[in-house]
Specification:
Distance between the termini: 65 Å
Low-confidence stretches: none
CATH class of the largest domain: Alpha Beta
Structural class: alpha/beta
Strand order of the largest sheet: 4-3-5-12-6
Helix content: 25-40%
Mean pLDDT: 84
Order of helices and strands: HHHEEHEHEHEEEHEHEHEEEH
Number of strands: 12
CATH superfamily of the largest domain: Periplasmic binding protein-like II
CATH topology of the largest domain: D-Maltodextrin-Binding Protein, domain 2
Number of domains: 3
Radius of gyration: 31 Å
Shape: rod-shaped
Strand content: 15-25%
């Protein structure tokens, strides 16, 4: 028997015939006419080179081969039905699924910190496994969203880098602010562009080469800043600023995560595009109920978060 050349619908026919032991009743069960069911039985017999069901005074009786086949056939069909039921009747309270998320540290501190509270009530056995990107702003390779990550959440200004088949959705955008320690010797409640350019900065990598958008904007105005420390993520920036005379440009919501540092939070004296936190996934997950449910929870949390937005 060659599985590739076999009509798998015949397995449903075989199961019905074995249960009903009657062609007419089996036909009604699978939605076929009596002649169509008789034709399907004939095809089954040719496929297995066996009568499978033979007429007796008591009705149709299975052959030894049919009795052997029905056990794995029932198991296979039950597994398939279970998978289809799980797809169409997803229940977050019962799921044990693990989702693999690529998320930068800012998404962890803001979005995921709120999301996990919601998930712990709705889906106690669901697991989120979070991976950190190498640099803050570069989107993941498209094939990683096919082969490994369920979702990517981050700042992706170069959305053109995403290939066909990748969905993207803006979760929120927020302005930039400048942070400095409360007793900074040069900065006291306001920031001019000259002070901004003259100060020493903590910078977050834009790309792996360590270049930044702010430097390009300053360069266009004939200015240059001193980047004392370049780091790949945001989490260490408030601590570096609080412990030195360094300043930094960060998303508006970041200082709220570090209120205990009592940092000065000031408008940035140059115009910079807002941070845009984006969710990305592969289109193959569009109709996955569990995946769609998680995306909905992320949207709800993003829409209801306080602080950090415009």
């Amino acid at each position: 028997m060659n599985l590739q050349s076999t009509d798998l619908n015949l397995l449903l026919v075989f199961e019905a015939l074995m249960d009903e032991r009657n062609v007419t009743r089996a036909a009604g069960r699978v939605g076929l006419s009596q002649p169509a069911m008789s034709n399907a039985l004939a095809r089954l017999r040719r496929t297995f080179d066996d009568p499978l069901l033979v007429r007796t005074p008591e009705g149709m009786a299975p052959t030894p081969l049919a009795q052997t086949l029905i056990v794995p056939v029932r198991q296979a069909l039950a597994s398939l039905r279970g998978a289809l039921d799980a797809h169409s009747n997803f229940n977050p309270a019962e799921t044990k699924r693990t989702f693999h998320l690529l998320a930068n540290d800012y998404a962890e501190m803001t979005l995921l910190a709120i999301l996990i509270g919601s998930l712990s009530h709705e889906a106690k056995d669901l697991t989120l496994r979070v991976y950190r990107p190498r640099t803050l702003f570069q989107p993941p390779p498209a094939n990683s969203l096919v082969d490994f990550y369920d979702l990517a959440i981050g700042f992706y200004p170069d959305l053109i880098a995403f290939e066909t088949g990748i969905r993207t959705e803006l979760l929120w955008e927020e302005n930039n602010v400048c942070i400095a320690r409360p007793d900074h010797p040069e900065i006291h409640g306001s920031m001019t562009i000259d002070k901004f350019a003259a100060a020493r900065h903590v910078s977050v990598f834009y790309k792996s080469q360590g270049t930044g958008l702010i430097d390009t904007i300053l360069e266009q105005q004939g200015l240059e800043r001193k980047q004392t420390i370049l780091v790949p993520h945001f989490a260490s920036v408030p601590f570096l600023v609080a412990a030195s005379d360094l300043i930094a440009v960060v998303p508006q919501g970041l200082p709220n995560c570090f209120n205990h540092l009592r940092l000065q939070v000031l408008p940035v004296p140059i115009e910079i595009a807002p941070f845009r936190l984006t969710m990305a996934w592969h289109e193959r997950y569009d109709n996955d109920p569990a995946h769609a449910w998680l995306r909905d929870r992320i949207r709800e949390v993003s829409g209801g978060r306080e602080g950090g937005g415009e």
